[in-house]
Amino acid sequence: MAADFKIAPSILSSDFARLGDEVKAIDAAGCDYVHIDVMDGHFVPNLTFGPPIISCIRPCTDKVFDVHLMINPAQPYLQDYADAGADIITVHAEADAHLDRSLQFIRSIGKKAGISLNPGTPETVVEYVIDKVDLILVMSVNPGFGGQSFIGSQLEKIRRLRQMIGERPIDLEVDGGINTKTIGDVVAAGANVVVAGSAVFNDGDYEKSISALRAAAG
Ligand code: DX5
Ligand code: ZN
Predict the structure, then answer these.
(1) What angle do CA 151, 157, 160 make, to 5 degrees?
(2) What angle do CA 62, 8, 47 make, to 5 degrees?
(3) Atom 9 of ligand 1: nearest residue by CA position
(4) What domains are there in the chain, each with its CATH number?
(5) Spacing, Cα 18 to ligand 2 middle (Å)
């Protein structure tokens, strides 16, 4: 397992009635990042958190806020998510028309820039922006919901992206359907950050589920 291996629980699967306490709980349970799934009901068929909610939970932890923007357009809102407390802001390659401009803007305001690829999007989409990203997020489910099954075809994409990244300091993150059965193949393929929503929150004992994922990562 990579020395910089990280687990990023997705709060999409948490209890929204106790969101602040849930963030504190995964922090105490040993998460590395807090994965925040922002959905607009347009780019994906679900609606979740806006900047005000992120601002409210920001004081609950010092852990990295890994904000996954499943919204289109994303460009007009990047500053708002940065102001709300995002540390990493990830946009979808399939969203705005001007991907390069969005990535440059995110870095220009002092945040880490991420690009996310839906299952049907080839890894070649990162070719001309790979030196403008700090994180590449491979979707291993079709975005919009937690609790879906892992799409195995993405393992080859992860392998190819790990090759493309080479020595660059870029996190390769995989998101969707990650559990103790799928995490080993994903890490072996080259991912160093994994997102897990239902695999962390469904059990109730977050420390146990995060430790089980770390152990299964190999
Ligand atoms: C899906 C989100 C994922 C999801 C992961 O659109 O981007 O982060 O919450 O949930 P699980 O781990 O349950 O597949
Ligand atoms: Zn996500």
Answers:
(1) 160
(2) 95
(3) 146
(4) 6-217 (3.20.20.70)
(5) 20
Residue with tokens 């080993």: 184
Name the pairing type of β-strands 193-196 and 112-117: unpaired
Tens of pLDDT, residue by residue over 134-144, are 999 999 999 99
Residue in 44, 65, 140, 145 to alter for ligand 1 test, most ligand atoms within 8 A of Cβ: 145
Catalytic residue among 32, 37, 66, 171: 37
Token reading at 175: 């998101």
**pLDDT tens figures, 39-67:** 999 999 999 999 999 999 999 999 999 99
The pTM of this model reads: 0.98
Pairing of strands 88-92, 135-139: unpaired
